[in-house]
Structure formats: C-alpha cells, structure tokens
Amino acid sequence: MRRRRRNRQMAQMNVVPYIDVMLVLLVIFMVTAPLTQTGVEIDLPQANAETIGADSDNTPVSIAVTVDGHFYLGENEVTSVVELEQRIADQLNNKPKRPVYIQGDKGVEYEVIMQAMVAAQRAGAKNIGLIAAGQVPPSH
To answer: Which numeric CATH code is attached to 61-131?
Structure first.
C-alpha cells in the first residue's frame, strides 16, 4: 500500500504592504517634525563656552527674556517679575539644586536680565546660569 502525501500549503503573511505603510509614515514624520518645534524667538548673543550638562534628576527651569522685556517661563508668558518669582518657586518644588537657565535676547537691557536672576534667587534657586547662542540647555 502506498500512502498518499498531501501537499500542504503553508500560510505566509505578506509584509510588503506593511513596509510600504511604515515608510510613508516615516516620511510624514520626517517632514512634520521640524514644523512642530516651538519656542520663544530670541536672538542670543554669541559666546565661546562649553555646553552645559544636566543631571537627569534635575530638569532645568528655562526663562527667556525677549527684546521688548517680556519674560517667558518655558513657552508661557509671565506678566510681571512677582509672577515670575512665584512660578519659578512652583516649578522648583523644594528642589533648590534644580538649575535655572536664563536666555536673554542680545538687545535686552542688562537690568531686565538681572530682574529675572533676582526672581530666580528669591524663588529659592541655587544654580542659576545664563545661556548664549549655541548653548541650548539639554532637554529631557
């Protein structure tokens, strides 16, 4: 007696359409990623300094001062120095070692930068630094 062998078909998944979809999504993300970067426009002064490193436990608090003297904490505008001090204190959350970085437009008066520094000091910041062009603080 002879046994008959059945030709069994193996089920295989066609992954080519999935690769095509993935490549299209990759192109879409590559095109749209630069458009989603937002921030406060500041013309920073140039300085020959090394980039500042950051501790992963202490994400920096970023203050920006525009040429017209407006303060921004992150991307949110702050209306007064008193409000800036309060909002920095809220962000520090009893972590005085958390760094505070101040970015000032090169056309801003020194007095306005000093107001931001004093507000950070009164809020309890112990580590205050100034950021120049090419010295973007690390983000986490």
So the answer is: 3.30.420.270
CB proximity list for 32: less than 8 A, separation 6 or greater: none
Q: What is the dihedral of CA 53, 110, 133, 85, to 10 degrees?
A: 50
The pLDDT tens digits of the residues spanning 60-97 come to 889 999 888 899 998 889 989 999 999 999 988 877 78
pTM of the model: 0.58
CA dist 126 and 138 (Å) reads 18
Q: What is the 3-state secondary structure (H, E, C) of the chain?
A: CCCCCCCCCCCCCCCHHHHHHHHHHHHHHHHHHHHHCCCCCCCCCECCCCCCCCCCCCCCEEEEECCCCCEEECCEEECCHHHHHHHHHHHHCCCCCCCEEEEECCCCCHHHHHHHHHHHHHCCCCCEEEECECCCCCCC
- For residue 27, what pLDDT is reported? 93
Rg over alpha carbons for the chain, rounded to the nearest Å, is 26
Whether the pLDDT of residue 42 is over 60: the answer is yes
